[in-house]
Amino acid sequence: MSTTPYPSFGVLLVDDEPAWLRSVSLTLARSAGITNVVTCQDSRQVMDVLARHEIGLILLDLTMPHLSGADLLAQIGELHPEIATIVVSGMNQVETAVSCMRLGAFDYFVKTVEEDRLVSGVLRAIRFLSLERENRQMSSRFLSGELQHPEAFGRIVTCDRAMHTIFAYIEAVAQSPQPLLITGESGVGKELVARAAHALSGCSGPLVAVNVAGLDDTVFADTLFGHVRGAYTGADHARSGLIEEAADGTLFLDEIGDLSIASQVKLLRLLQEGEYFPLGSDRPKRLKARIIVATHCDLAAREAAGSFRRDLYYRLRTHCVHVPPLRERSADLPLLLEHFLAEAARSLGKKKPTPPKELPQLLATYPFPGNIRELKAMVYDAVSLHKERILAMDTFIKAIGTGRQVAPVPERNRFADLERLPTFAEAAEMLVAEAMARSKGSQTIAARLLGISQPALSKRLKMARNLDP
Question: Cβ neighbours of residue 349 under 8 Å, at least 6 residues apart?
Fold first, then answer.
């Protein structure tokens, strides 16, 4: 049962007819899960209600005693321009509708209109107001440059400026009901970002995570939506889906880029309509969870290739963050190394070893295709074999040597614009100097960068020193 009011701001219904107030309140709750509703039967009390409650949207009748809806609409526009007003009138007149829109009404509906159209209009206004609030919060976060809840990101070890910009963005959009798309290579920590967003959301329910890669359409629907008894052969009991388990919380769908087209259609309808059908049921259920999705794929490229629906892609990327790979966060290597050394030591029941000072420099020369997950595996392997006080580098050198990726040859010859080509001796001397600079004086690391043995590098350095006048 949902307990968190939706939306985060109040929706005020103003009408002198109690029956209409009850009917619309029930319709909004039943059809759209809108429960944060306040009603007012006397138009003269509206300003007092606005002073006492955080109202974001008003549904306003025009024909009321004492203070007309048109007069009230003008007052709201003047004193509370941040509040959106939808006029719901018994008069089906174009002139009246135009007059209301000129006074600042967000929309205009006739009371005899179908319930679905009214509910859709209210949801559209709520989405607009939510995005407007998120934009203001985002601007405030970026201007202040400070996080209000840094503890939510405590599990993400970083000193990288780009990562802290991501944290500020997550804080700004964490309470949005709109989907959040997290992209990034495998192993960069997308689920940790999702968990931080959930922690900041204020939702009382759990975060329920599922990897959707490899799920066929039937399994995907059954996993998310559940089924009723007798939905298919073997369905002896009704089973709730993960959407229901995540009620009042967050549903995290990992590897969304691998979803089949048929399943993409189901997910799109869930996001658009906010409802779903358990397998074998003709009674819809409301979506009561925030949706966060993640992928290592380039969704824009997949959309262009036709393997990912365009409408779903744009729906998912309402809020979007890209987590950079570890090779672009080299300053985080010493922090992550210390973190995983302590974690591995605790896990393996050992004393935390001391890493050699050259180790972070060595790791910085490696592109880490497996990102943070790969670094963690390296550290655990090294600690499991560790015996002395100082951590041996052999395990890391072996792992890096096995997984090293050869950098592509530059398409353009870097010597093409030189009037005089350097000799082999001069070119070698420049390469050695650059490698020693990048390795901060470590011959072991410089030799690895140059693809030669350490004795060979040592010999070249001695030759260079002997040649110096």
Answer: none
Q: Tell me the C-alpha distance between 249 and 291, whole Å.
A: 9
Contact 134, 173 (CB under 8 A): yes
Angstrom distance (rounded) from CA 397 to CA 448: 9
Instruction: Provide the 10 A C-beta neighbour count for residue 266.
Output: 18
Number of H helices and E strands in the chain, helices first, is 19, 14
Q: pTM to 2 decimals? A: 0.72
DSSP state of 39: E
Tell how strand 55-60 and strand 84-89 pair up.
parallel
Task: Decide whether 10-129 matches 327-403 in CATH topology.
Answer: no
Q: Give pLDDT tens digits for 336-387.
A: 999 999 999 999 999 999 998 888 888 988 899 999 999 999 999 999 998 8
d(CA 287, CA 275): 5
- If we measure between CA atoms, which residue out of 217, 288, 296, 189 comes closest to residue 248? 288
CB 234 within 8 Å of CB 280:
no
Coil/strand/helix, residue 342:
helix
CA 365 – CA 448 distance, rounded (Å): 8
In this structure, the number of other CB atoms found within 10 A of the CB of residue 354 comes to 12
Which residues of the chain register pLDDT less than 70?
A: 1-3, 141-145, 402-412, 466-469
The domain locations on the chain are 10-129, 145-319, 327-403, 424-467
CATH number for the domain running over 10-129: 3.40.50.2300
The verdict on domain 145-319 having CATH code 3.40.50.300 is: yes
- The predicted pLDDT at position 263 comes to 94
Copy the structure tokens of residue 466: 């002997």
pLDDT value, residue 435: 79
Long-range contacts of 431-436 (CB under 8 A, 24+ apart): 432/457, 432/460, 432/461, 432/464, 436/461
Topology given in CATH for the domain delimited by 327-403: Helicase, Ruva Protein; domain 3 (1.10.8)
Identify whether the C-beta of residue 258 lies closer than 8 Å to the C-beta of residue 219: no
Give the span between the Cα atoms of 330 and 422, in whole angstroms: 32
Kindly write down the DSSP assignment for every residue of 207-238, as one continuous string.
EEEEE-TT--HHHHHHHHHEE-TTSSTT--S-
